[in-house]
Design goal:
49% of the residues lie in helices and 3% in strands. The chain is mainly α. The protein has three domains: 30 residues; 97 residues, Cytochrome Bc1 Complex, Chain D, domain 2 (Orthogonal Bundle), CATH 1.10.760; 78 residues, Orthogonal Bundle (Cytochrome Bc1 Complex, Chain D, domain 2), CATH 1.10.760.10. Strands 1-2 form a two-stranded antiparallel ribbon. Strands 3-4 form a two-stranded antiparallel ribbon. A hairpin with a 2-residue loop joins strand 3 and strand 4.
Length: 246
């Protein structure tokens, strides 16, 4: 048993010691914040995006840096996962991008406001969070014609860039869900070899109106022009020919 004087000394020494440790950690954290948060890169556009985020209560459903509603997806790394072009399309019409699934409100943001929100999310995604959040479990949705859960993207070959000659639409939007050569998203099936299973006409029909080909599919109708669909089909067909000749 400690005497009263020993207990008092124990309390004072350890309370004072831990208080100094706490103050030291606080000072270190405050000093590290500007660099880890890339404070110098916080643009006026990103600040306007933060105001839109707050005014529309986006955190009531979504989380950023682990804080928020936990009702809708975590968005800390959403720009890294999806890309700015995909997010811009999603903000224009959330229901179109996930037909029959998404319940997000359509806010009718202007083009300028969408760029502001994306700038804010881009800045958030560049904050040093020590690896948070962990990479999401991107489940396969069966969004492409005739594909199944076994058609997962293969690992990319060292030094190869499967998207080197890809059309802009694929590199900025399609790649958010689909992969080729191991590069891209895993929300939708890998498109490796899709041209071997479908004719150019069938692929064009799918891109023109996915619901007409497969009712209930998760693939959105992006209202692609004839030229854009033609570029995508030609590229996928050319990839199939290249893979077959190897």
């Amino acid at each position: 048993m400690l005497s009263k004087s020993q207990a008092r000394t124990f309390f004072i020494v350890f309370t004072g010691g831990f208080s100094l440790v706490f103050l030291g950690l606080t000072v270190d954290t405050v000093r590290a914040v500007p660099e880890r948060s890339h404070e110098a890169e916080l643009s006026d556009r990103a600040k306007r995006g933060k105001r839109l985020w707050d005014e529309n209560n986006c955190m009531g459903c979504h989380t950023l840096l682990g804080e928020g509603g936990y009702y809708a997806p975590e968005l800390t790394k959403v720009v890294e996962r999806r890309g700015a072009a995909w997010i811009d399309l999603f903000l224009q019409d959330p229901q179109q991008m996930f037909p029959g699934q998404r319940k997000m409100v359509k806010y009718d943001f202007t083009a300028e406001e969408r760029r502001d929100v994306i700038a804010f999310l881009t800045w958030i995604g560049e904050v040093d969070t020590n690896g948070f959040p962990a990479p999401p479990d991107m489940t396969l949705s069966g969004a492409a014609p005739g594909t199944n859960a076994g058609q997962i993207a293969a690992a990319p070959k060292p030094g190869a860039d499967p998207l080197a000659n890809a059309p802009t639409m694929f590199r900025t939007v399609c790649v958010a869900c689909h992969a080729v050569g191991g590069v891209g998203g895993n929300t939708g099936p890998s498109l490796d070899g899709v041209a071997d299973r479908y004719t150019a006409e069938a692929l064009d029909q799918w891109l023109a109106d996915p619901q007409a080909v497969k009712p209930g599919t998760a693939m959105p109708n992006l209202n692609l022009s004839d030229d854009v669909r033609g570029e995508l089909v030609a590229w996928l067909r050319a990839r199939g020919t290249q893979e077959t000749s190897r």
